[in-house]
Design a protein that fits this description.
Keywords: Membrane, Transmembrane, Transmembrane helix. The protein is built from nine helices and three strands, in the order ααβββααααααα. By secondary structure, the protein is mainly alpha-helical. It folds into two domains: 157 residues, no CATH class; 85 residues. The protein has a three-stranded antiparallel beta sheet with strand order 1-2-3, with no helix packed on it. A hairpin with a 2-residue loop joins strand 2 and strand 3. Helix 3 packs antiparallel against helix 6, helix 7 runs antiparallel to helix 8 and helix 8 packs antiparallel against helix 9. The chain starts with a helix and ends in a 5-residue tail after the last helix. The N terminus is likely disordered.
Length: 270
């Protein structure tokens, strides 16, 4: 196992484990918290007194049980999602370190976690710029995307749009600035994944409009049948063939790279 960590360039430690657990739980914690805060306006009005909880139309928004759950969700978002993200985002800047010193918050655990999250990025040597803030930039993009769950049923429309925009901006930044220590991306991979993502988002938005039109009986039966065939086919091509195939190809490349590394550094004795 130690040899695998060495070949993969991974240095296991306690703080690395905490950072990994945090990343694994980040999306689910944020998504669940924003879902608890989902709004379902009564009679399509946006007045706060008329709003209901999206997942239980009988429950008034931020009243009774939902008030306690919503308050807990806000605490989770503040202390486990937003503040750690801002810490990682601002970690490379000297003025932020001075601020932490003034507030007596330069704890060793925070420093270690900051080093773990920003480790894969360049370290800003002479005449170069430090791109470590991109680790926090990615988490900030995740927060922006997941925050769309607040809009209830409209999130099925807004999430793909925000995800496409944020993913495109992050991909362009990575391609232009090359912030990673190792050059693991190329333009062709970016183009393929962006087209796949665009098709997936178009599929989701089309499904939403299809569902709305079908409920209103404005869609002709023949067109509806065609779309029912086309949309599942696109889903199959994107999520069953294209994306899994790309992941398998990347895993195969990693295994070959590890095998070549092992043969190069452990030659068979003659």
């Amino acid at each position: 196992m130690a040899r695998f960590w060495s070949m993969a360039g991974i240095e296991p430690s306690f703080t690395h484990s905490i950072a990994s657990i945090y990343i694994l739980c980040f999306t689910q914690l944020a998504a669940t918290s924003f879902k608890i805060l989902s709004i379902a306006p009564k009679n399509e009005t946006l007045g706060f007194n008329n709003t209901k909880f999206y997942y239980d139309m009988k429950q008034d928004y931020f009243k009774g049980v939902h008030g306690a759950a919503g308050f807990f969700a806000i605490l989770v978002l503040l202390f486990l999602i937003v503040l750690p993200t801002l810490y990682i985002l601002l970690y490379p800047f000297k003025w932020f370190h001075k601020l932490l010193d003034c507030l007596h918050l330069r704890k060793q655990l925070l420093i270690s976690l900051g080093d773990v999250f920003t480790g894969p990025y360049k370290n800003g040597t002479e005449n170069t710029y430090d791109y470590c803030f991109m680790a926090g930039l990615y988490l900030l993009a995740r927060i922006i995307i997941l925050s769309q769950f607040i809009y209830g049923k409209y999130s099925i429309f807004s999430i793909p749009i925000f995800q496409a925009c944020c993913s495109f901006l992050l991909a362009v930044i990575v391609i232009i600035f090359r912030p990673f220590q190792r050059n693991i991306h190329n333009f062709n991979e970016f183009l393929v994944m962006f087209l796949t993502m665009a098709l997936g988002c178009t599929n989701i938005v089309a499904s939403f409009f299809l569902h709305t039109l079908h409920e209103s009986s404005y869609l002709d039966l023949l067109i509806f049948v065609i779309l029912v065939i086309v949309l599942p086919t696109l889903n199959g091509l994107i999520f069953v063939i294209t994306i899994p195939g790309y992941i398998i190809y990347q895993v195969y490349k990693m295994i070959k790279s590890c095998h070549r590394y092992y043969k190069r550094n452990n030659p068979v004795p003659g």
